[in-house]
Each structure stands twice: as C-alpha cells, then as structure tokens.
Fold these 3 entries.
Entry 1:
Amino acid sequence: MSLVPVSTPQAPRKFDLAIVGAGPAGMAAAITARDCGLSVLVVDENPAPGGQVFRAAELAGTDPALARDMAPGLDLIARFRALDITYRPGATLWMLDPDMGTLSLSRLNETLEFVADRILLTTGAQERPMPIPGWTLPGVMSAGAAQIALKTAGMVPSGRVVLAGQGPLMWLLANQLIRAGVLPVLVETRTQPILRTALEQGGIFSGLAQLTKGIGLILKARQSGMRVITGAKHLRAEGSSRVQTLRFEGGFEPCDTLLLHEGVIPSTHISMAIGLEHVWDARQFCWRPKLDVFGASSHTRIAVAGDGAVIGGWEAAVATGQLAALDAAFRLGRLAGADRDFRAEASADALLQARALRPFLDALYAPSQEILAPPEESTIICRCEEVTAGSLRWAAAIGATGPNQAKAYLRCGMGPCQGRLCGPTVAAVIAEIRGVAVEEVGHFRPRAPYKPITVQELAGAQHGADRIS
Amino acid sequence: MFRTRPDHRPETVQVYVEGRALMVPEGSSAAAAILIAGLPAIRETAVSGSPRLPWCMMGVCFDCLAEIDGVANRQACMVPVAAGMRIARQHGAREPQR
C-alpha cells in the first residue's frame, strides 16, 4: 500500500485582505488596499491578471484585432504587477470558510490555504444561459467563448460564422472578428426600440462617451458589410453531428460556427455557497448579493465588488473595487471613517458616471421570456445532466417548488457545473409553472468543493477538509 | 473549426491532441488546442453519449472536460498548454482508476 504524501501541518499564512479574482475590481482593490497599508493576497483562477475583459491583455495588446480594447487594461495590469502583495494566479478556490476567514485552493495539484481578516469576492460575470433547441451541438458556443479564444490564442472561427442574440458584447465581438479577418452575420433578438427606450430610460447625456463608442461599433460593423437580421424569434440550431443552420421565424442562416449571447449576469456561485444574502434584480433578470454602498455583504467578513456585485462593466468594477478596499481599511482600523468617506468620493463619482448608461442598456437588451424559460419541451436546460424543459415543467407541476427540489427530482444542477449554467433557467421555468415571480422560487444552494478536486488535494488541506459538508 | 493567426501570435507550443503532434499559439488553453485540432468533439456526455465541444471557455460550463496528461475530468479551458502536454477526449464519465 502506498501512502499519499501530505504536507506537514503548519498555520496558514494570514493577510489583512484576501481578494478572489484578478479582474479590474480585484486589481483596483489591491492597489487601493496596498495604498492604505494592508497586507494583500490576490488569488485568481486564470494564469494572468485582467479578468475576462482584459483577459491575456499582456499577450493580446499588440494584436490589431484587440489592441484598442486592451489598451485601458494594460496600465491597470502594470500597476497591479508592481504591487508588493502575494499574488497566486492559476489557483482555484474550492472552499471558503467565511466564519474562520480561511481560503482553500488548488494549484498545480498542490493545496494552498490562507487566512484573512477581510475577504473581497471579485469573481466577475458570466454569460446568461441561452437555451435554444440545439445549443448543445458541437459548433455552437457562447460569444464570450469565441472572444476568449481570440484574446488568449489569437484564433478565430473558420467558415461561416453567425452571431445570434443581443447585447453590447455582440457588437464588440463583431468588430473584433472583422478586424481579425472574419465577416460574421448578426441575427439580433432585440425586441425593444432604440429611440423610445433611450427617451424613457435617460442617461444618454451623462453616458454620452459610452454611447458614442457603442454607436461607433455598430456603424463600423455595418460599413464593413456585416449583414444584420433584427427582431429574430424562435431560434434553433440544427445539424446532425455539428451545427449547420440557425433557423428562426421567417428565415435561416447556414453556419459552421454559431455564437450565442444574451448579456451577462453576476457569477454568484461562491457568494451563494457561503450563504450570503442575495436579492433579485428585476432590471437585469438575475440574482446578486445584497450589499451596502461599500460592497459589504450580509456576512461581517465578506465584501463583493465588480460585475459579481452588479453588472456595470469594467470602469464600474474599478470604482467598486476601490470602495471595498477603503472600507476594508476602515474596518481593520487602518483608516478613519472620515478619511474613508473623503477618499471614497472620487470612486463614487466615477461609479455614477460608469453606470449612467446602464438603465438604457438593461431596458434595450432585456431578454425575452422564451430565452429565460424555453417553451419547447425537448430543449435541454441542464447541459451536464441533459435535463429538458419538458421534464422540468413536469417536476414543477408535481410539486418541485424551487431549484433545490427540482435538483432532487431530476439531477438538474447536480452535474459537474453544479448549476452554474442552468440555475437561472431552472428557476425561471419553475416560476412560470407555479405562476409566481422568480425571486419567490429561489436559487440553487451550491456547496464546497466549488470545483472538483482530487483526493490528494483534499488530503493536503489542513482546514478545508474538516469543514466540507 | 478554428484557425490561428500566426502573423499576430507567432510564438507556439507543441502539444499532443489525441496522440497527434500539434503546434498551438502560446497562451492557448487545452480546450483551444482541441478546437484548433478540429476534433468533432472534446467529450461524449455521461448521460446520452452526445458529442460536445467547449461552450463557455471560462470555467463555468464544464462541457470541456478532458483527459490531460493522464488525469481525467480536467476543465480543459482552464488548463494553459505546456510543451509536450497530452490532451485526449473523454468518453462519458471518468473511468475508475486502476
């Protein structure tokens, strides 16, 4: 019998502030926290800082398809890299104990454990699920996935490329693909009229810079000859072993790669797993952690900033990261309350500016009910366990009152992704059958380990292993 | 089906996808290597055996589970390529280790 070697027990290293995620919010928080004299740990699952928006920016900064979009991130990354902090990239958080302040991570088959007085989650956003018939076919992927492939490896889809869905990212990705030599077709699902929405929601003047950028992207894509089909409904991906056609009401587009997108929502997997209180955001159709103006959560040790707190884009993420770091310094007795409030003013102003256009964007790109709760019975909702909309409706009809009951009935949310992807759809379908609001049916309650770990990694943990439930 | 743009990403790393040597851009993930290799699927699902390719490329969906350097159930999109890395498709659930 061979024994797995385990590290000798020793107390985990302790920090004033631990930050989970090295995107704009996490980097900005680290910079501000260091400025306040805090000892800072930053852990991140990706190999380099930048988050998703500035993913691999140091590599992609010279790529003509991406350079202009990456430029604002390079300065932030350079300032972050120069900090005297402990930075652990490529490390996956699989257990966070908010009461003890312990973080358990795996990195290259090794277990890392740290303790922190305050913990800031800057885990960012993920794309809203877009469960149309056929979305599991090879060749169908999220628009964000294609953008990540372009940022990290400079690669682009070959053959006929169709973008389908809606949101600011679609126009940005279309431009990036065009610059990289790919001319896609855009099939837009938007149903809200631009002008009326703008007049109703306002923010046009204070958000003028963002609006100008957005309109520039739309004009540029159209000038490049990109075909745009608007108001598409009842989308379905078709093909035998791979996607061949995107079909919609009144038309179809042949495709070799189909890229879907319906906006982004906060990644709440960890914030929900540690039991933070969440609120339903009726404007963005998603759950988000309940926070005060500094990002402090319902747990005294934990704060949340960036798109994981509320979707606002990278400039808002920087501002909320700064606010959370100032509050951490205050709570640790390193900054007087008056100083925190004084220093917070600039960030609060920047936040207001960064969020000016949000009400307009949220209203303009509101997802339709058929995206939130797919009507066709055979549409797969849970990609891991291949649970369909039809079986979920059956489960709701015979008494599954929320996602956690449906999980016990059908295994939806019990596969490897732990409901990260199907959670919003499962809740929306149950709400529809019960005839109540989504917030009333609740959400999955994820548990540690947040990602699969090996027995060797578990054995290497002093603390996390005891607390796993 | 993806293609690389060597003019803009000239640095490459050699990996093995299903045993075949392949040069992929530095910074690629193992999932990106499979897309560049043009495999029809990265895995077959544990429930129905349906073919899948990566969906999100950012660690959310777990559709890119693959066997990397002999270890099954790895999220291929979260594993940066390294010289000589062996990336293989996963058929159904992870096999029990012998």
Entry 2:
Amino acid sequence: MPPIYLGEFEYAVLLAVLHLDEGAYAVPVRELIEQRTSRPVARGALYTGLDRLEAKGCLKSRMGDPSDERGGKARRYYTVTAAGMKAIRATHGAFASLTKGLESILERP
Amino acid sequence: MTHSPAPSKLAESALSFVVRDTDQRESMIGDLREEYARYARRAGHERAARWHFRQSFSIAVRYGFTRLFRRKPPVRWITTASMEPAGPWWTGLTRDVLYARRAIVQRPLLSFTVVVTLALALAANSTTFSLMDALVLRPYRFAGVERLMVATTVAPNDAFFDRINVTAADFREWREQSMTIKDWAMYQWWDANLSGVDVPEQVPGFFVSPGFFELLGSTPIIGRGFTESEAQRGQHHRVVLGHGLWTRRFASDPNIIGKSVRLDGEPYEVVGIAPPGFTTPDGAELWAPIALTDQQWADRRNENFGVLGRLADGATVEQARAELTTIVDTQRREHPDSNVRRFARVMSFTGGMADPGAGAFIGIWQGAALLLLLIACANIANLLMARGAERSSEYALRLALGASRARIFTQTLIEGLLLSLVALVVSVPLLAIGLGLSRASIPASVLRFIPGWSFIRIDVTLLLATALLGTVAMMVFSLLPAIQAVRAQVSDTLRQSGRSLTPGRNRQWLRSMLAATQIALALALLFASTMSLDAADRTVNGVLGFDKRNVLVAQLNLPERNYGDAETRRRFITDVMDAMRGIPAVTDIGATSMIPNAFNNTSRRFFPEGQDLKEHEARFAQYRSADSAYFAAMKIPLIRGRQFDDSDRVDGVQVAIVSRSLANYYWSDSDPIGKRFKLAIDGPWITVVGVSGDVVHNWFVRQFETVYRPLTQTAPYSVAFAVRTVGDPNAVAGDLRRAVSKVDADQPIASLAAMETLVDERAAGFAFIARALGVVGAIALVLSIMGIYSLMAFLTAQRTQEIGVRMALGAGRWQVVRAITSRAIVITAIGAAIGSALALGLGRVMESLLFGLVNINLFQLASLVAALAAVALVAAYLPARRAAQVDPMTALRES
C-alpha cells in the first residue's frame, strides 16, 4: 500500500474543494484559496494541481452541462474521494500533532 | 480589439494544443471564457482580451511543462494515506504478456501470416547480412587484423587500377624510414608447378618475406615459418605448404617436415604446414621465402610486390598515411624517371585485399533485402491495423472500464514483440536454408579465391543482428496499430460499434498509403532484380565475340627454369598442338597467351604512330599472343586484312591483329591496315595486318581494345590451348592431358575445362547474386499482393452494410464492384508512379555499377508496372465481387 503524499498546495486545494462542495470547479476554487490565504494562485498551477490530485485518487471529476456564459463550454466539477478525505485527515492530524503545545506561540496575534 | 467581444482564438488553440485530454481542455477553455466575461464587464473588452491572452499562454506553458517533465507527482515528506494496491511493476507486465498471447492465439490465421511474412523478410536479411559480413566486412578474422595495413602506390587518374604494387627498392626505403608502421612484409605472386608426383599440378603460391606468417597472426600447425637467413639466395629453397594442399597431395603426412618437394623443377625443403583455412593472400596454397639479389633490391621499375605492414603501438592509420605520403613524395622527387607517377595509398587490410567491385554487389543485395523488410513491415502493420480496427470496440470497452491508454499501448507493443519473437525463431531454419543455398550455388573452383567464405555460418553475431532487425521491425510495425489503438475515442467507438460504418477517413488513408508504399517498393525491387538477372544472363549467354560451345581449354604456365629460351617455349606449344591434330574429334586447335575468362589479364600501353605520347598519356590496350588457328578454334572473325602466317618471322616485320574497337578508336577515318604502333615507348614498331572482331575477355575488365601478336614473334610463358571439337569437348580432355605430358612429363596443366564452364564459373558469383535478388523480388511481389488483397478484403468487409444499402436501392453488381475497386485503382496508380521513379533511380545506380552491362529498359519497366497493376487489381476485384454477390438483406442484417 504505497502512501499518498500531500503537498501544501495540494492540501489547500483539497480543503477548498471540500468547502465548495457541489460547486467546486477551477474558478471558485482558485478564488477561495486566494481569499483565505491572501496569496496569488496561478491558474496553470491550479490545473496541474487538480490533475495531480485526480491522478493520486484524491479527487474525482465530472463534466457539467455547457453554458452560454462560458461560450458553450462545460464545467469540470471536482469532489473529494474517500482516499482524498483520508489524506486530508492524515495531513491535518500530522500538522495538528506537530502544533500541539505550540498554541501559545502560534495563536499570538 | 475594442470591438471584439470574443476571447483570442489563437490563445485557445495554444491551450488546446498543450492539453490533450478533451474534458480538461473544454473545462479550462470554459473557465477562462467565464472569467473573461466577468473581467470584460468590469474593465472592458480590450483589457479582458489582453488578460485572457496572457492567462491562456501562461497556463499553456505551465501546464505543458508539468505534463512534459513531471509525470509523477512530487514526493513530499508527510505520509498520509495509501492508494489502492499496485504490486511490483512486473505484475502488470505478466498480465499483459498473457493477454497478448491470448490475442495472438485467438486469431491463428492472421498470426500465422504475420509470423511467416516477418520470418521470410528476416531470413532474407540475415542471409544477406551473413554474406556481407563474411565476404566484405570481416573476411579476415585473425588477431590484430584491424591494425594491419596494405600499402600500395597509385597513379593519378588511372581508370583501370586503384592500387599498384610496389618495387623492391621503394619498399626497402619504406621499411627503413617509417616510424608509424613497425612490422613489414612483402609478397609476390608465384604460379608454382608442383612435380615429382604422379600428376603434376600448378599450385597458387607466393614468395613472401620472413615474418609474413607472424605479421598475419598465423603460426604453422606443424613446423615453422621462415627465418631471416632463408631470405638469402642459396638458402631460400624452403616452402610452407597450405593445409589444403598438404591434405590433398601429401595425405596429411605428419612427417613431411624436412622432406623435399619439387617446385618449378627444383627441390624445396618443407619447413611448415599452414593452419587450415589460411590462404592469404588470394587463395595461396604454398609459400616460399623471397630471396632477392642486390641488383633486384635496387630495382625501381618492376612493381612486383604486395606490401603489408602493422601499425606501431600508438600510431593511427592517418599518421601512417601521412608519413607514407611524405616518403613516397620524397621518392618521387628523387627518382623522377621511375617514380614520377607514384603516389602513396594506405588501406586497411580487409579493404586492400578485397576485390574493389564485390562490395557494391552485395551492397545492392543488402539494400534489396532491407527494402523487403520494409515491405514486410508495411504489410504486417497493415494486417495489424486491420485487426486493430476490428478490435477497436474491445479497446474502447477496456478504456471505458478504466484501463489506462498507456496500458493498451504497452499491450499492443507486447503483442508485436511476441509475434516478432516467434518470427525470429521461425527465421533461423529459413536462414540455415538460405546460407546452405548460398554456399551450394558457387562452384568450388571460384570459392578458392573468395576469402571469408568459410565464415558464412550461423553465429552469435548473426543471430544478434537478426534479433536487432526483428526488434526494429517490431517497432515499425506495431507502433502504428498501437498509436491507432490509443487514439481511438471511447465514446465514438462505442457509439459506432453497434452499426458498422465505413471506417474513419484518417485510418483508411494511412492504410492506403501503406499499401501504395508496398507496391512502390515491390516495383523498384522487381525492376532491380530483372535488371541484374538480365546482366547475369548477358554475361553467360550474351554476345561474347567468340563461340563458347564445343571448346576445350587447357591453361598452363611454363616455368622460367626449363623454358627460359623463347624457342623452347614455341617448340612446346607446336609439339602439343601437333600431338592433338591427329585426333578425329578435334577440328581446330590454337594457342594464345590468355584465354577469355581467365583469372589474369595483361595490358600494354599503346603508342600509335603519328601521336607523340608520353608514357603516362598512352591508353592501355589488352595484350594477347595468339596463332591463326586460335581465331579459327574460337571462331573470332577476321574483319579486314589477313591472318598471321608463316611469313611473320621473329626477325621479320613485327605484325599484329587489332580488335575492331581499337581500330575504330585510333584510326576511325582511315584504313587501319598498314598502320604502325608501339607497345612500349622504346619498343619496336609493329604493323597492323588484320582487324578482328571484339571479344569480351572477362566482364570485370570491360575493355574491347585488344592487340594480338603472333606466337611466331612472341613467346608467352602463360599458354592456353583452345581445342574445338565435334561433340562434347570434355571427351578429348584425356587426350590433351596426354599430349602435354608426352611433350613434358613434369609440366602441370593449371586448368582444363570446357570454355562454357569457364564462362559460367566466371559469372557464377554474379549470377548467384542476381538469382538471390530475383528471389527477394519475388518475395516482395507476393508480400505486396498479400498486402493489397488483405487491405481490399478488409475494406470491403467493412462496407458490407453500405453495399447492402446500395444494392437495395437498386445499384447493379458492376456498380458495386466499381465503387469498391476504384480505391484500389487509385492506390495502385500512386504506388506504380512512386515505384517507377524509384525503379528508374535504382536502375541508374545499377547501370553505373554494372559497367554498362545493363541498360534501363523502359519497356521492361512498363510491362512490370502492367503486370503488378493487373495482379493488384485482381486482388482487389475478388473481395469486391464477393461483396457484390451478397444478398442485400443479409448484408443489411449482418454486423
């Protein structure tokens, strides 16, 4: 059973997809990450990240219906898979256990 | 830009180019359009368009870069969860191999065809490769052969000789001065007459310098080579016998060392036996030391010696070449009278020993074999693509069920690999047959002169080369179907699979191209092989200038020791002829110095009167001695003037008969009779008394310009008797042998054979290659017909439904046939056009290689095209007719 490794950015993307639930496609995912982390996200990086996560089995995608707003092109919606959830939880747990005891420093304003 | 509400098309195409996955592509372009629309509302179209353009390109670059260089996700340090089981890498491979095996076994006929096709092509290629390797690339395989050089001189602009032997004085200076070549050896041709045995025999021998055997990395199996002291006059009557001669004439006597044999009438002490297979140079069977007098060592006139040298440690061929050039240039300055036209030439041992022409022929053949392999590959690719199309729904289903494209790609490749492995195994016995046939098809008398013949066998190198070819072939023929399999669109194929449509335009185009290529290549090959068959036929059955039927030829060389006096040579010749004249079956007997198709050749510079030519300006002419009966025996016509007769005395006017070509060249506008010429710049004047027909002396030296001098005024050491008989010439062979032995019991006959045999043997190597080319051409023809038949059968099968519809709508049979064969006609036409161009190009090459022996025959090309086209059309018509006979209802219900 080879382990899944999550990078920081991948972790962020997975969390954003979780947040957006049914409406997770590239545009809002990027906006959400930019808003919450106040860091610019290159579109190219996001697409490759999404691809990679799908290849790892953390995400799955489906095509929506084409819309006029998009010049007749369909959206690609992403949802987190069970493996993806497992990976998120494991990463979260790993960070949580590392930060345990550092709350006084980390949560200082 | 302000008025353009739409995002940039260019940017979108760039993106599409990078993103191959269609869903991903659609969603990306959609995303960008969506954001573009929003941005445009806020900031206007112009800025939005710029933004869109920039974004698209940056995504394309970033995404493309990642896809290209980072196929695997980067490894990060936080271990989190696990993926589905994958197992070790070879788990999937085993499955793939098993699956491929099943796919092959399930279609036995197709697999059989593929295997046989490939095996044939592979066998043809490796047979050729083996011949090429043994005869041309590596005919000599002793240790250190790669550092062995042949040093010769060469005259500038010499049309006949690309290498000239070396004089003794020049050689001595080379040996003394050279630093880059350490060990030297020289050798000189010697037709040794072996006598003192029951039947005297002429043996090909060489005088060699001491150290010759060591230089060639050969140690006598019994006894030793020559010592330095044996190169002194008086001690030089030593001989090393060839293994073949020792076995044949001395019953492999192990105690022969120290015994004496008679060579040219003199006793020679046997000091060693050469190892089996050692026949260097030029099929030698015995070797004796060169012992030159001081006067001979000082000779700069006679270019008698072949020279070999081994590179000194650390020296390169280029250094040796440069150094020898310097030495030879100095010699040319210091001895302008003798060395003025000598330039250095250093060759590898293999290159220097090789017949300059042989490589080209085998090269043609190898090229043909490679073409055949290409045809086979195209054929197999076509077959596999047909199967690929048939299996497209299978692929689609597997893709839909989650197989990756890489998986299917790998699998198709593995199938190809398996097929070529089987073909490889099948090709080995075919290869053995090919080599056996090759060996059997050249007469032993010719083989002796072909070094490396014994290396023609199945060895590791050969098998490796075949395996390499097989793998390359596999790559060529399974890549196309594999790509096709991977590119197939799942949804499209599944949608189509229910009702069969005429297959996609793209795929048809590719397959048609393959079929056209096959026809083109086959046409070129066929043309080349008919040309060489023609040439071979012409060498054997063409116009020779003499009548080869019912002539017995005895060739012999009179040794200088017994026949040093010209009168004794003349008496020998007359005595033998007188002894033969009494035999009733003999109608004519004549003598010459050299019979057509002999292995040697003599030529002289020709100085016509009235032209003040310098030595090197004079052209060469073939030179022969003959008597008048020789012309009668060979049926060489006398065109003008008179024959030689008894009035042509030694001390009288020197006369000659010249060939028609020579007369035309020098005296085209006047009567050649009575004209005078010299055969050496300081020689006597010779008067033309007659003009004879042209004779093909041998087809390697395609020179017709010939001077015949009467035997009464010349006395050659090398003599050939031509005996014209009624009935089988071989019937008087015994008589001729007895006649010679009656005149001189110790005199061997070097060769006794019918003229017809000589001609055949001389052309044997060439005829062999021509026949082999013919075989290759025939295989190519069969393969390409198979190719077009399978293509047409497949296309027709795919269009069964369409045919049904057409016929249901009232189309007649003929219309259906026409609709289907029209494609075959186009394919054939394109293939024939390209093939004709190829064939003409190939024909040009062959014309230049075969010394004008063949000409491009357009009529022949046209008939080949017609034949090929006819066969191709029949191959296309058969499936079409079958399709047209189908009941429309069945056709519609089917598939």
Entry 3:
Amino acid sequence: MQPFTYERATSVTEASASVSKHPNAKFIAGGTNLLDLMKLGIERPAHLVDISRLPLNQIETQPDRSMRIGAQVTNSDLAVHSHVRTHFPLLTQALLAGASGQLRNKASVGGNLLQRTRCPYFYNTHTPCNKRVPGSGCAAIGGFNRANAILGTSTSCIAVHPSDMAVAMTALGAQIETTNATGQTRKLGIGDLYRLPGTTPQIETSLTPGEMIVAVHLRPPPRGKQIYRKVRDRASYAFALVSVAAIVEQRNGRVASSRVAFGGLAPRPWRAEAAEQMLRNGKTDPATFSAAAEHAFAEARTEGSAGFKLELAKRTLCQTLAVAAT
Amino acid sequence: MNGASNPFLPTRRQVLEGSSAVALVMTSRLAEAAPAATGAASLNATEPVAFDLTINGKQTALRLDTRTTLLDALREHLGLTGSKKGCDHGQCGACTVLVNGRRINACLSLAVMHQRDDVTTIEGLARGDDLHPMQAAFIERDGFQCGYCTPGQICSAVGMLQEARAGWPSHVTADVAMPRAPLTDDEIRERMSGNICRCSAYPNIVAAIRDAAEKA
C-alpha cells in the first residue's frame, strides 16, 4: 500500500474542502472496498479523509413514509430498520442479498453507491483496463467476461456496477443529496449520479472533486408489491449475475403501475423504463411479462461468454414480475 | 493449450502493454504525491499516528503507520495472534472481531480509524478459565478440523447471535417485515456465509452455533 496521510474529519464542509484541496485525496468511510483496492495498488490515494464519524448516521422518517437516510448509516442498520422492512422491503431484500454480515456492518450507504466494479481485469494490474489506466485498452472484451455487462457498454469498457442496494434505490427513484467544498448542497436523481462508460470509463459519476454524498432521499413508497430477486453462482455472498428489482401494482388482473431495475447487467444500476412502458395496462400474464422482457433487452449487446446472461435476465425478469404481480 | 488462442488468458502483448501502462501510472502518481506531503503542512505520510483502542477491556495506546489494518495491529503489534489472516481481502472471515459489539473483518479496516473503539478478539471471549458458551459449543460439537478459521467463526457466530436476537432478518428470511425469524439451520448458514472453512467442517459449525443459540 502506498503511504498516505490521514485526517479525521470533524465537519462535512471541512472534509469536502480537504478532499478538493489535496491532490489525490479520497474520502474513506467503511473502507471495505477502498482498502481492498489500496492493498492491490489499484487505488493509490496520498491523503485519506475519514468521514465515518461525521453526524451522517441518522435515518429520518416522515408521516407520509418518505425517508432521509444519512450517508454514514451502515448497510446493516439500513437493512434492519423497521420502517425500511415494513415500507421498503425491496431495499431490505437487496441489502441483505449483498456481501456478508461482517461487511454490511462496516459498509456505509454512501460507499455502497460509490463502490467500484469487480471486473477481473480492473483488479488485475497486469492486464489493460481503461477504467484503471485510461487509454490502456479493455482486456475484458475478448477475455473472460461471463460476469460482464450486456447493457450500456462501450467499446472502451464492459464492466458491471456491483451494488444490490443501488438497484433497489434506482427502482425506488432515490434522490442523492450532496455537499461540496463551499458548503453548497444539491440533490440529484440516482439515474443522474452514474455515468455510462463511453470513451471515459474512469469517470463513473457526475460528482465534482470533493463533493460528498451526505444522504439518500426516498419518496413515499410506490403502490404495489416489491420484490428483489438476485441470481448468482452460489447461494450466498456472491455478486449478481443478474438481479431484478420490481414493484408491480396490480388491479383487476392488469398492471396499474410498475417500476423495474436491473443489477449485474450494466455499468450502472439500470432502470428498465422500456419494460415499464410495455407493462402498463397489460394483463398480468406470461405473454405481457415476456413482451416486457423482449423490450427491456432490445438494445442488449452480449460480449463473448456473457451471452447466457441475456436469456437468464429475461427469465429472471418474467419470474420476478409474476411474483410481484400476485 | 496455446496461451494465445485461449480466451481465458491474456495475450503476451496485452500483458506487456498492461505492465508498461502500470509503470506509467506509478510514475505519474508519485509525481502527484510529492506536493500532497509538503502541502499538508503538519502531515507526513510516513509519520506514525498515535491513537487509543480498548482491546478486550484494556485501554491500549498505539502509535502506528497509517496503513496498518486493525488485523495487523492486533497480530503484529499487540501479539494477539488469535485473529487470523486468511485472504486479507474480506472474503474469508478468518479475521472477524467484534468492534463495539458488532462483527467486522479486521483486515478491511484501518487501525487508526478505530480511535476509542471497543474491540473484542477471540482472546477476550473467555472469562478466566470459563470458556465463552460459543467456544464450549465448538469443542463439544467438534466444529473444526485444522482450526485456522475457528477464531473468526466463533467471533462471527457471537456477533451473529446478537443480530438474530435483536430481530435482524437475513437473505433467507421469507418475510423481512416479520419481527423475528426463527434461527433455522438455513438461517445460520446464510448468516455465517462470510466465514469460509476450507476443511468444510460446516455441519458441525452449524450444530455448535445451534447449541449455543438454544442454551443462551
């Protein structure tokens, strides 16, 4: 690990100012992803600003059931919060499907959103990777890529965003609250937080240098049944090959409204608006779900051994919709 | 099989390109790092940092390189070698300790970030000669073979039972809104999936945890 200086932040603005002032500085919260990458020499910060003790660990609920979740709330605390379990079970299910008990006790909500891809070529410093070393090439294209993306990819990068939590938050239309070095705050939709790789896969979010995620806002829970379904190589403690977050409001055998997002398939949590449009007013039957699945993946591009994911994703979507529509 | 035609292996050219690119980035990052050290006035990246921890009930003052993980602080600087280094990347759970009562991977945590935290390791579970009920259950049920993962398994199981008693659901809980799921073997296995046992003593580990849960 490269040597770094350490600073324990005492205020949000001070932390933000410090990261924007120091060249090559980073925030550290739970550290479960950043330290892993630092040990491997993939992340090489010269200065760490510890934000884990900032007063950002509150979960606030409103009478209309909307929520404000502090960015330093741990994944465990969010998953087991009674309001989340009762009104946003999708979010609890997604959180509990991710990582291990130990990691969830340490990982923060903000850090979960900003975690890096687990693409094997991003991790292997002996191979090219445009995300790790811009311009070096993509070894995943034409390489061992069965876990890579089939939506939103580019000729520069086919890496997947690994989060489960962010997929549920995408289906729920979460808003991200940030603060910058001058104390200015802004809110952006979770869809606007993440950037597609294009020709610059090293730039993953729309956050500016030193801008810190301070909270996640959830609107009142949408009507309908919420289901998070994760398919992976083993039953526990593995990243998704495919995951589906679905919220379906069923009325008289028809889909009154729906929200669908995918994980494990794209460089960012993927809201499937095309599928939602196909579902609207459709009968809650296999033909409608199948049509939605065809629509959702009309633009999918499979690379090498990730081809199996296309069929797996369609079937997982149909199965999840069938459960959510009951 | 010829490496060049194997899609799972990088080509020789890719490896060469990769290494030169890595060398380039290292040079440029070193150049970036220099002003950071001087610009940070009182901060020097190679200067040890002082902080306090409570370890197994004993307040301990440390002065360590910022890069020291909690696991290395315990093993290399405090002589508490019960916590094991398996993968050192949070994948195996051999380093599991309790911090402020919660189980975490000590390998994926910087020691300096634990200022004034209360750390319990495997060495701190027994009361004198009286083993912790979880330790006794592991012996009773023969919940190990080589024993390397055992301290992590036991610390994790202690933390896990506290979570279950607090009513936390898990990935296999049918209804996450239910106040408290019964701790079935499936629940124990899911909740312990962050601890790997390469001897595969899982059936006896599950039995030991079940016993300890019932006795408590």
